[in-house]
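Components:
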Amino acid sequence: MAAPVFKNPVIRWIDHRLPVFSYLHHEAYEYPTPKNLNYWWNFGSLAGVMLVVMIVTGLILAMQYTPHVDYAFNSVERIMRDVNWGWLLRYLHMNGASMFFIVVYIHIFRGLYFGSYKAPRELLWQIGVLIYLLMMATAFMGYVLPWGQMSFWGATVITNLFSAIPVIGDEIVTLLWGGFSVENPTLNRLFVLHFLLPFVILGAVVVHIIALHRFGSNNPLGIDTKGPQDTLPFHPYYTMKDMFGLGVFLLFYAFWVFWAPNALGDPVNYELANPLSTPEHIVPEWYYLPFYAILRSIPDKLLGVIAMGASIIILFFLPWLDRSPVRSGTFRPVFKWFFWILVFDCVILMFCGKYAPEAYWMPFSLEIVDADTFTARVAEVRGIAHDEALTAVGDMWGVNAAAGTFGIKIVRLGQLGTLYYFAYFLVVLPLLSIFERPRQVPLSISKPVLGGGQSVAHATAKSMEKA
Amino acid sequence: MADTTHGGPASGTRRDFMNLLVNSVAVFGAAAVAWPIISSLNPSQDVLALASTEVDLSQIEAGQSITVKWRGKPVFIRHRTPEEIKTAEGVDISSLRDPQPDGDRVEKPEWLIVVGVCTHLGCVPQGQKPSEPRGQFGGWFCPCHGSEYDTSGRIRRGPAPTNLEVPQYTFESDTLVKIG
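Structure:
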């Protein structure tokens, strides 16, 4: 922890007056990091890299883009066709959004599994949730800018969410639009905010890192570092590990950019926005799908919006919902199961958000069929008339266990998924904190490696009694 | 091993080699990232596609001038009178700041085509309309800092260092010129 002595006299002169070099040395060089971090801990720095990639490509794209309803679509096409390397910069930015979300989702689930949200890192976690919210807003606004059909109708649907607010909802939506529909003023303000918010995110990331460095990283064992024997200096050990992870990740990123640049997007967005005609099936980008499924699960407009908002807001309260003193899921035999079900549940919700709510999922034939087709199949298998089959299928969870036909209405599946999502946070975690008996936690990080001593038997159980 | 790390500059260690390798990758990587970003700021294909302009000269009488836009800049086309041509050709080349005979600046003596941007700091000189000042030498007068050009577009007085630039052009026919 001693102040570093720099050889370069210029650096020494500056550092004496403005200690940036000492600060960097302290926070990015000698910064003591738990020595047992696994590759799940790479995703924080990857998210940082993605933020920089998005800001750099975004700045360059903004120099070529025209935020006006008459020119926006064509200016994007001009970037694709005429601007030198414009296709590369746009595809990097477009797929970069998806990569950013993949990285951040893994980062979040890492935190959920290893209990990184628990004391003393509650604020660190909450700042992270805030960054995630800002990311969602920024990505939505960015998606509007190319002014394709999905841009326009996505903007219409998302802004209309606010119309669910009682009494003043319509006035708020008019205020957001700057008109009576999504129009040029809307595009202009969304462009300005899309430009601004990444820098707000950058600021929040700095705060996130300051909070992180207060107690240092959590680790796979979820126990505190107890001294130098448990840590390694950040450089070169974790800088190199992060660099290696970055290299692997960039290969993944490059695959999408160069081989499947439009695979994650919707082809309908290559049609110019038409305020007079809504596309047949509006689907958000993949990273919003679970929340879209939650929104559609609730048959009431206001409650649907509230449920969607609550699904993220609930994360702010997570540190106080999970009161188990053991951080790492590795030592929580029951929690582990519920955690992986949550991961699976989010995938299911994503799937539900992707397809029409009225469609049926047939798990045995792995098909998604629309309601008419499903009814026809039931009629055929049972040998009954179509009308009769219609009654048989009904709306009752859409499950039909008759021989050969088994299907679940997508919206019902989404409701089950939504139920589990909220139950995980509001029921499962609080109850596990009381009833789960965690396995023994090692005494220190270095102990299993350097040997000697035994784990503290039932230490955690005792502290739970106190709680 | 400890000894080799303290070897003189002539004997590189394995670690030196690794550092060199890592730094090279970083430098090439940074260059590979910077290249498309910087290149994207250069003129795009649609800008380059508009790099030439065709002008019909049949309506321009002797003594008249027109201004056309080429690559976003004004180009002066002056149908010179015999007197103007004579004055331009009669100048003592050695007395010029940027010595150039009139014959080198025109394809056809009656048509003078120059880029209408003062070579001092980029203003557009006056003298295209009869009402505008043409300076002492009958060509153009730049209102910004008082540079004066003659009937061949050569700098004669004032701060501008060189003559008005002659763009690349070809006569497609007697009355049609393609600039660029």
